[in-house]
Amino acid sequence: MIRSATSPLFNALKRNYSNVAPTTKLFINGQFVDSKATQWVDLHDPATNNLVTKVPQSTQAEMDAAVESCKSAYELWKNTSVLTRQQIMLKLQAALRRDIKKIAANITLEQGKTLPDAEGDVMRGIQVVEHACAAGTLLQGESLQGITRDMDITSYRVPLGVTAGICPFNFPAMVPLWMIPLALIAGNTMLVKPSERDPGATMLIMELLNEAGCPPGVVNVIHGTHDAVNFICDHPDIKAISFVGGDRAGKHIYQRGAASGKRIQSNMGAKNHAIVLPDADKNAALDSLVGAAFGAAGQRCMALSVAILVGDAQNWIPDLIEKAKKLKVSAGHEPGTDVGPVISPQAKERIFKLIESGIKQGAKCPLDGRSVKVEKYPNGNFVGPTLLTDVKTSYDCYKEEIFGPVLSVISADTLEEAISIINSNPYGNGTAIFTTSGNYARQFVHEVDAGQIGVNVPIPVPLPMFSFTGSRGSFHGDLHFYGKQGLYFYTETKTITSLWRKGAVPANSVPSVSMPVHN
Ligand code: NAD
């Protein structure tokens, strides 16, 4: 039985979106349908732990029907003109902008992040929709006239077929929108499996896709966990998988999907370091550290989780603590909240254990968020901003991705030493430097081995005209999400060599049996 949720946000959503609660539906062939699942995942509001909705573990028949729907829609969709697809994206963009607050409210309810942060989550996705609208240029192939006499070569970018997207919990709108717009604009259909922990935003996006006139079957949504993921990895009709999530699932999907010949892009975990040099603008650097370490309760793959304070910047720890202490911890929909709850009681427990292990291994904890109490929400999964100092790279709290509001502080004597710490870490998602020296910034940019670098920018997530270029342990694959690479991922190249001879071939011509070289 579903207990009634008490949050006014929940009631507002229930009124507006029948497809979100009390059980999350599937989206098959353009229809929201009740699942016949026998197993369900309970989804709780992280601020209260009240039950919000039940998410089905889709049955085999439902998953088969979803792929079949993608497959039959593909024939129509790939032959739909680029301009028509673009019109649908433009309508989707307008609808998303109109409904941004409603989607954000759903994210806050299911995921816990603050309302302004949830709006940022949707807006980052909208920007990818806007990028997809440039398909007329982005999808162009290449051509060369007269490569040899009367011969031309043209290449087209053609869709792959049925593609699939598997999403994490931490960006329930942005990540599906990293995938859906670019897969669709290129002429593919897509099967989406949102995170079982917060699928509501995806379901709202499906309502808007219907409203925008996207034909039934172009996108289907199934729910579930491991079985649904393995179904996607193994299905012979699925040609490509976009995955965003943790290392374990990402490596598994990369291997299992590749075994059945699929193209895969797998964005995984991270440990993002910031170097603070003593010549940095102190307040700007400390504000950036606090925002990027504790915002979204540290549950961003681009969160700054390690600060390397170089030389005299080590004296700034008391000021860092003062700034972090001012953050308000509460439910994400409460005005003025800076740090919402983490996703689950299990996540909270894991964060507590990693803090504890850091202290046991020798770190100091001058700001301990484990004692935080939010009186109005006694059952929420709250962890306050936490600072671990004197951290060594051998500690578990350094080696593990904590994915909570915990900033580990390491000291270094020189920029070179700081860069070498970053380059020795297996992850390569993002990093940042805070300095007022162009020469140190340039040295850092060229010597550091990470895929996304901020110079006085704490969260250097590229805008969608570029690509999300995490590297090393943070990414498996070749072509990255969004930007030009995103479209390359969802297309393959068809190259046509044409000979339209001017004049007839003479009767005494001799056939050539050697490899044609056309020169
Ligand atoms: P997760 O790996 O637990 O889940 C991601 C998806 O994989 C979900 O849909 C889930 O159902 C499925 N899944 C989980 N475990 C699985 C398994 N063992 N086998 C098959 N499928 C499985 O990740 P999460 O906790 O939802 O998200 C947080 C993680 O995602 C963090 O590690 C974060 O760094 C990472 N992340 C990375 C990026 C990036 O772009 N690099 C962006 C966002 C999040």
TrEMBL record:
UniProt cross-references to CDD domains, sorted A to Z: ALDH_F6_MMSDH
GO biological process, alphabetically ordered: L-valine catabolic process; thymine catabolic process
Chief localisation class: mitochondrion
PROSITE patterns: ALDEHYDE_DEHYDR_CYS (PS00070)
Segments forming domain Aldehyde dehydrogenase: 32-496
Segments crossing the lipid bilayer: none
Keywords for this protein: Mitochondrion, NAD, Oxidoreductase, Transit peptide
SUPFAM superfamilies, per database record: ALDH-like
Stored Gene3D superfamilies: Aldehyde Dehydrogenase, Chain A, domain 1 (3.40.605.10), Aldehyde Dehydrogenase, Chain A, domain 2 (3.40.309.10)
UniProt xrefs under InterPro entries: Ald_DH/histidinol_DH (IPR016161), Ald_DH_C (IPR016163), Ald_DH_CS_CYS (IPR016160), Ald_DH_N (IPR016162), Aldehyde_DH_dom (IPR015590), MeMal-semiAld_DH (IPR010061)
Record function comment: Probable malonate and methylmalonate semialdehyde dehydrogenase involved in the catabolism of valine, thymine, and compounds catabolized by way of beta-alanine, including uracil and cytidine.
Family: Belongs to the aldehyde dehydrogenase family.
Protein name: Probable methylmalonate-semialdehyde/malonate-semialdehyde dehydrogenase [acylating], mitochondrial
Organism: Rhynchophorus ferrugineus (Red palm weevil)
